Amino acid sequence: MRDAKFSILLLCLVTALAAIGCSDSSSSPTSPDGGPLVFSGTVEHQGDSIHDLDMIDDGLLTVTLTQVRVLLFDTTQGGSPANLVLGFGLGQRRQDGECLLTTNLLLQRNEVRVYRLSKDLYCLSIFDAGALPEDALISYTLLATITN
Fold this sequence. Notes:
The protein is mainly beta. The protein is built from one helix and eight strands.
């Protein structure tokens, strides 16, 4: 009986965390003092997490994946949670609201990428680049700094 309750609790937790990983983030964090913008979320197997970014002027966008944390990872399916690599994409929203990536690449923890962008609305995507096993759930933090 106790094992059945534990299994149900575990199933509910995994379902709730997976639902979080499937949701897009449509907020655009602001930093009035010119400090870094902080984007965070979760990514599941074959999933993504999308954030909006408003470039109010032409400038340089510097992004750094500062934190990658394993929330759920089944090592019996192969692979290892050590040195996880996630996908990073940059693009713009289509009229239907979908984020159309114009560039995407692999991004490791503490890796820095710099882009020159024009004044416009952009979307950033952190996604499973094919390295996460089924039922995996990863949290991340991405720092973005905008300079002229």
